[in-house]
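Appendix B. Chain record.
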Amino acid sequence: MLYYLFFYALRPHFSPLNVFRYITVRTAVATLTALALSFLLGPWMIKRLRELQVKQYIREEGPQRHHAKAGTPTMGGVLIVAAIVVPTLLWADLRNPCVILAVAATLAFGAIGFVDDYNKVVRRRNLGLTARRKFLLQVLVCVFVGVVLVWLQEKGEYSTQLSVPFLKRLHPDLVIHSVLRHDFFWPLAYVPFVLFLVLVIAGLSNGVNITDGLDGLAIGCVLVSSAALTVLTYLSSHARFAEYLEIQKIPEAAELTIFCGSVLGASLGFLWYNAHPAEMFMGDVGSLALGGAIGTVAVILKQEILLLSIGGIFVLELLSVIIQVGSFKLTGKRVFRMAPLHHHFELLGWSESKIIVRFWILALVFALFALTTLKLR
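Structure tokens predicted for this chain:
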């Protein structure tokens, strides 16, 4: 909204405001706006959550050291979502459908997390929505994202083809074109595409949610991932860089750089309050929203496979839970001392700070590797 004010209304009368035509300038301003909102509203949010008795309940089967965290204000993810959405609305071109889709997906996943957290607070136990209901709601949001992207494809503004790292000429299409020719059955042609979206977006959303078990762990890894996506979004939307790096050029994704910058600023601001020892937890409202935002951006950029590296820590945490549950059900034995993975290292005797910092380092390595693959094609 401020973008329209400065660039369209005031620029003809004050030429220096012409700088707001540049994506880089608005991304930097959006990042700083998100950071400022976090710093300004953070203390009020913590105070308000304490007054409302919105506190964390620790699961009984978790590590014993976590019981000392019981009573810490939670649902701080409301601050994260606000710090993402408000700067995006202020500084992005809202005529861009990619921006609107990313914001809508973030709000939708945040709403699912909010309902889950609210149920936990009301019941005064670490039990919110059932896993089945939560996943069903996530699937519905992913279907909505898929429908919008199919609509954009029909307009020629999106492609359902995948980009495969290291194989620049391989672009498998997730649409069954043989079925697409039949007027009655054409919706079935997009079923593989929608299922893939569920795997990517809902999977990453749950991965961030599972990673959010130690002070600053999840938000620090999101900070690294969002920084990598900010760079990747800008490169994908820039004609010269996209041609040089031989990646798919997506001009419509330019304004997503501002959205990613907002995620970066919101993550940095929330880390101020979530660093060990945490003054506030993000709750599911924050973790699901952040995972949904990152997954949606990766899908729009056609970098779903590269997301395995950009969000490497979240993938490892999610896989550790899948492996643990699968192994126990099939053999009655556990692979890890406790899942997700960060709890395994806790029970090995690692301090919380050591686990957090080492996971941050791994997240940075994964993100740098992902950016490196852009030229290694």
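Further analysis of this model is presented in Appendix C.
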